[in-house]
Amino acid sequence: IGTGAGFPGIPLKIMRPDVEVVLLDSLGKRVNFLNTVINELKLEKISAIHVRAEDGGRDKKLREKFDCATARAVAPMNILLEYCMPFIKKGGFFIAMKGASEDESYENALKELGGKVESENVFTLPESDFTRRIICVKKTDNLSTRYPRKAGIPKKNPL
User: Fold this and answer.
1) N or C, fewer C-beta in 10 Å, the chain?
2) Which long-range contacts (CB under 8 A, 24 or more apart) does 127-130 make?
3) Per-residue model confidence (pLDDT) at position 74
4) Comparing C-alpha atoms, which of 50, 51, 64, 47 is closest to residue 13?
5) 24-43 confidence digits (pLDDT tens)
6) C-alpha span between 17 and 14 (Å, rounded)
7) How far apart are CA 150 and CA 140, in angstroms?
């Protein structure tokens, strides 16, 4: 979700050709770039789609269809959960890549969206002093049809 330049989706696809990958971004220009990269690298079972997370999360073709979703540098965790949880099947996982200094309260969003933190790993990037966190959230319940809310609402009024 919010794939940017294709991380981590494209490296994941290269490392695991057996896994089907969908890259989702709200910017058409970025999606066009990603499709060019996919074609140049001759990658299979990977697609880039142009849609806002809030709209994609309501699309029957995408809603609760994925085993796992990832996001990096998209939004604070309480907003990010509303963007990502609609795509994940019950029993699936959301993996958030966050900076160590991001002190966020997201317990209400977890409860409302049917998630439970399975693990949180803190590490320092090699040959640097940059600390990062990887938060793994398991989806424990199906999502209410109230979520995701319309585009822009999660950011204006976070859970």
Assistant:
1) C
2) none
3) 84
4) 47
5) 999 999 999 999 999 999 99
6) 6
7) 23
